[in-house]
Amino acid sequence: MRVMGVDPGLTRCGIGMVDGGIGRKVTAVDVGVVRTPQDMDLANRLLRVADAAERWMDAHRPDAVAIERVFSQHNVRTAMGTAQAGGVVALAAARRGIPVAFHTPSEVKAAVTGNGSADKAQVTAMVTRILGLRVAPKPADAADALALAICHCWRAPLLDRMAKAEAQAAAARARYTERLAEQRRAGGTRNSGGGQRKAVGE
């Protein structure tokens, strides 16, 4: 499975591509950072991010796109820009029929380092080690994008099993509800018929 990881942002948007193999084996395919100038208007900054994401998707044909979920940030303006950048990437993927998954920073850190509170240096070090890279990916946005892709490769089987289990549970509930409705309808019909026969007997 090929996964495109995206660490969304307006000033720097990290994009990383990895191939997931058997077990927990992952291989780096490509990594980079999309930059937009702060003095550019918001619409064009988002367009630049979207165009770059589309080029990556068309060039590498990922099976899934993993985007960091904006969990909480002290700077509301930064959080909004991050969410908007992630949104245009998700839209680009949806237009191509590519599944999109969102992972929180703590989920990514826990998957890659075993510690949901790991700092950026620890994440970068583990990404470098996991992928067997000779040089650590820089800046941190690039390493975070690869970490997102790795996280999804490792979490996807679990997420898929959970989704299937939830779907089966929902189907079972629907069948049970339908059976109850049929029983109520059948009971109502019998009661109605019994009342009519009693009236005729009288």
From TrEMBL:
Q: Which SUPFAM superfamilies match?
A: Ribonuclease H-like (SSF53098)
| Gene Ontology biological process terms from the UniProt entry | DNA recombination; DNA repair
Q: Could you tell me what reaction this enzyme catalyses? A: Endonucleolytic cleavage at a junction such as a reciprocal single-stranded crossover between two homologous DNA duplexes (Holliday junction)
Cofactor detail note: Binds 2 Mg(2+) ion per subunit.
Query: What cellular component GO annotations does this protein have?
Result: cytoplasm; Holliday junction resolvase complex
Q: Which cofactor does it need?
A: Mg(2+)
Signal peptide from the UniProt entry: none
In Gene Ontology terms, what is one molecular function of this protein? Answer: magnesium ion binding
**Residue numbers annotated as active site:** 7, 68, 141
> What UniProt keywords are attached to this protein's entry?
Cytoplasm, DNA damage, DNA recombination, DNA repair, DNA-binding, Endonuclease, Hydrolase, Magnesium, Metal-binding, Nuclease
Extract the Pfam families matched here. RuvC
Where is it localised?
Answer: Cytoplasm
Q: Where does Mg(2+) 1 bind?
A: 7, 141
Enumerate the residues binding Mg(2+) 2.
68
Instruction: Extract the InterPro entries matched here.
Output: RNaseH-like_sf, RNaseH_sf, X-over_junc_endoDNase_Mg_BS, X-over_junc_endoDNase_RuvC
- Region entry Disordered, spans: 181-202
The EC code for this enzyme is 3.1.21.10
Family membership noted in the UniProt record: Belongs to the RuvC family.
NCBIfam families in the record, alphabetically?
Answer: ruvC
Instruction: Quote the subunit structure annotation.
Output: Homodimer which binds Holliday junction (HJ) DNA. The HJ becomes 2-fold symmetrical on binding to RuvC with unstacked arms; it has a different conformation from HJ DNA in complex with RuvA. In the full resolvosome a probable DNA-RuvA(4)-RuvB(12)-RuvC(2) complex forms which resolves the HJ.
Which PANTHER family does the annotation name?
CROSSOVER JUNCTION ENDODEOXYRIBONUCLEASE RUVC
Say what the protein does: The RuvA-RuvB-RuvC complex processes Holliday junction (HJ) DNA during genetic recombination and DNA repair. Endonuclease that resolves HJ intermediates. Cleaves cruciform DNA by making single-stranded nicks across the HJ at symmetrical positions within the homologous arms, yielding a 5'-phosphate and a 3'-hydroxyl group; requires a central core of homology in the junction. The consensus cleavage sequence is 5'-(A/T)TT(C/G)-3'. Cleavage occurs on the 3'-side of the TT dinucleotide at the point of strand exchange.
Q: This protein is called what?
A: Crossover junction endodeoxyribonuclease RuvC
Organism, as annotated: Nocardia bovistercoris
Coding gene?
ruvC
